[in-house]
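<instruction>
Derive structure tokens from the sequence
<data>
Labelled lines for chain and fold
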Amino acid sequence: MTHDDIDLDTQLLYETLRIRLVELRIIQLYPSDKIQSPVHLSIGQEAVAAGACAALLPEDLVFGSYRSHAFYLAKGGDLRQMMAELYGKATGCCGGKAGSMHLAAPDVGFMGSSAIVASTIPHAVGAALAAKRRGLQQIVVAVFGDGATEEGVYHESLNFAALHQLPVLFLCENNGFAVHSRISARQSYDLLEHADSYGIPTRLCAKGNDPRAVYDTVAAAAERVRVERRPTVVVVDTYRQMEHVGIGEDHHVGYRSPSEAEPWRRTDPLVNESALVARFTPQILREIDDAVAFAEQSPWPGADALLADVA
């Protein structure tokens, strides 16, 4: 779809809806065992990726986490190649070797994701160091969840980025949980105050299911990073509607109740903007149908691909 004829708010809703419909199709497909890897869904969190990526320039780089379908798509990753990757096919964005948790589309600036918590944060810092030394005006975005901030490498990355004044935007999707563990049971620090202790400017977006609110917050932060050439931390409060990994809900586990999601569901733009959702859904579903057909008709990797790209 071209966005020349629609306003920003409509474009943001379209991208948010596209991500959700793709993941709803993944839910439908998963029981067939055609998808060859575990999946971490972003349902409820789609607006973070849609708003954040719309605030970036094409040359800006994004490093994601294992929950990266949304950022892959929002940054411009090819849906056909993503679906083929989930199927384990040779036409996938990583040749069928990476699966859901390791998507990459460097041609559009989505530099990769990893199943290892917090592991791409220092990669983003390194890319920002390279941008600084090369005199580039691009900025680099590290995307991670609140649980990743408990890893030592996060603290080391903040320190290094602040010390060397690097153009990196640390973007935390704060859904309040690490698997089944609440943030209050894990962290003695406040995310914003902690970043401030390194002298890093911070911004908070409390309306993480509102793509325009995310866009406004990230756009302001990105502009600051771009102009001042130093790091910023953005925390976006959001809510993961599905289980940590898989296609189901997990209220039966006992760590949260359905009522906790109700405030987020009531303010979900994909529920409230029903006319726009109805307008865009058919064309998005056609695109998804095409991507699924492409994945199913694509060949499996051959034996000659086994050691390809292995250093």
